[in-house]
Amino acid sequence: QVQLQESGPGLVKPSQTLSLTCTVSGGSISSGSYYWSWIRQPAGQGLEWIGHIYTSGSTNYNPSLKSRVTMSVDTSKNQFSLKLNSVTAADTAVYYCASAIAVAGYNWFDPWGQGTLVTVSS
Amino acid sequence: EIVLTQSPGTLSLSPGERATLSCRASQSVSSSYLAWYQQKPGQAPRLLIYGASSRATGIPDRFSGSGSGTDFTLTISRLEPEDFAVYYCQQYGSSLPYTFGQGTKLEIK
């Protein structure tokens, strides 16, 4: 079964770019029709969908973050990535990667990665 | 954007009791495209229910989901000690962005 694992710096300075990668194991990122998503959760708060990328490379982003987000997929490494620029302390959160079937009505998130904490601080 | 409002914010119950958690949407969720997740401290959310009422693989039958339109409910028939956690609803209908409720914390009384 597919498993996801986030990786990347745990500390990012204000105004810089947050970069995270999600490695997919137990299956090929390019097989089947899946949305590869990023979701974040500030400490003690709820969940926010950041956006997703389809295997073809097409993307959809949350309008609240759209101006600062870029997602990409690297099929040769079985990975997909998130870049969030111009970060502030408000971007401090646990960042999760997750997948969803890319068919209308099947877009629930399962599985999820374990999450990685990113702190924005100088 | 569809706003999901969960109630109550905190629910205090004892093992063996029945839990009823509510999720109300600001507009109709198309075709009951609503999911429920359980999250324990330090863990990622786990899918419990999709399509408003279908249990995910491996989820015990004490968990059930119901509802349509704007009102949805997660019911846990008899609480086990491991069920005390935070529960989130999420809509994945045709209009992006996908959104989550703010969560209901189920705590031991």
TrEMBL record, chain B:
CDD domains: IgV_L_kappa. Residues 1-90 form the Ig-like domain. Pfam families: V-set. Gene3D superfamilies: Immunoglobulins. GO terms for biological process: adaptive immune response. Transmembrane segments: none annotated. It comes from the Eukaryota. It comes from Homo sapiens (Human). Immunoglobulins are composed of two identical heavy chains and two identical light chains; disulfide-linked. GO terms for cellular component: extracellular region; immunoglobulin complex; plasma membrane. This is IGL c1653_light_IGKV3-20_IGKJ2. SUPFAM superfamilies: Immunoglobulin (SSF48726). The keyword tRNA-binding does not apply. Keywords: Adaptive immunity, Immunity, Immunoglobulin, Immunoglobulin domain. The keyword Nucleotide-binding does not apply.
